[in-house]
Amino acid sequence: MTTRTNFIDFTQPASLLRLALLADAAVSGVTGLAMMAGAGFADGLLGIPGPLLRYAGLSLLPFAAIVAIIATRDRLSRPAVGAVIAYNALWAVDSVVLMLSGWIALTALGYAFIAFQAAVVAIFAELQYMALRKTR
User: Domain count of the chain?
Assistant: First the structure.
C-alpha cells in the first residue's frame, strides 16, 4: 500500500513536471519584462492601456521567481504546484474575460496577443496538472 504525501520525491532530474514548471518560470519572466519594457509602444499597437500592460508584466516577475524556486527544490510540494496550476488557470480565464468584456478597445493584434498568451498559460496549467497527477 502506498501513501500519498504532500511532497514529490524525484529521482529523475528532467521530469515532465519540473520541466513544465521551469519553462513556465522562464516564459513568465521574459513575458513580464517584455510587457513592462514595451508597454508604451504596445499601447497603440495592441489597444491595451500602457499602465495595464506594465502592471500585468510587473505581476509576472514575482510569479516567475516563485515558480522557479518551487521547480528547483529537491522535493516539489504538491500544494505549491497546485497553487501554480490554479494561478495559471485563473490568468487564462481572466485573459479571456478581458478580451471578451469590451472593457478595453483592443486592436486585432491585441486580441491575438491576449488569445495567444492565454492559450500558452492554459497549456502550461494542463501540462503541470497532467504531470502532477502522474507523480506519486
Answer: 1
